[in-house]
């Protein structure tokens, strides 16, 4: 019986780790903040959220082609650069964004 409790405890720890760990970036997920005043909220980082919908689903070559054709504004390009630098840091993607930023 004691062995069963130990195994269940270890399984619970594994579930918590799996639930709160981003398997792609190997970073801990940030907790959601409750509603209320803005002062009560934890700061969020642009580097932890996809800068545009579908970004994480694109491979390097598709992303470089898309960036070249997308006609994105400066703020979006800066978010993409920050996100890419903090996560995948693919040189060709960063070079493309730098070229677009001028």
Number of helices: 4
Approximate helicity band: 40-55%
Strand order of the largest sheet: 1-2
Overall pLDDT: 78
Largest sheet: 2 strands, antiparallel
Question: Ranges with pLDDT <50 over ≥5 residues?
Answer: 33-46
Task: State the shape.
Answer: rod-shaped
User: What is the CA–CA distance across the termini?
Assistant: 67 Å
What Rg do the Cα atoms give?
19 Å
The helix/strand series, from N terminus to C terminus, equals HEEHHH
Q: What keywords describe this structure?
A:
102 residues, mainly alpha, 52% helix, 4% strand
Describe the structure.
- The chain is mainly alpha-helical.
- Helix content is 52%, strand content 4%.
- The chain has four helices and two strands; from the N terminus they run αββααα.
- The protein has helices at residues 2-20, 60-69, 74-86, 91-101, and strands at residues 21-22, 27-28.
- Strands 1-2 form a two-stranded antiparallel ribbon.
- Helix 3 runs antiparallel to helix 4 (91-101).
- It is rod-shaped and about 65 Å long.
- The model is unreliable at 33-46 (pLDDT under 50).
């Amino acid at each position: 019986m004691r062995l069963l409790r130990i195994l269940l405890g270890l399984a619970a720890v594994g579930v918590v780790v799996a639930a709160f760990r981003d398997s792609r970036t190997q970073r801990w997920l940030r907790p959601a903040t409750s509603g209320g005043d803005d002062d009560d909220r934890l700061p969020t980082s642009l580097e932890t959220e996809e800068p545009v919908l579908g970004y994480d689903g694109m491979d390097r070559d598709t992303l470089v082609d898309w960036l070249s054709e997308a006609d994105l504004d400066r703020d979006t390009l800066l978010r993409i650069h920050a996100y890419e630098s903090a996560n995948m840091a693919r040189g060709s993607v960063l070079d493309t964004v730098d070229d677009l930023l001028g």
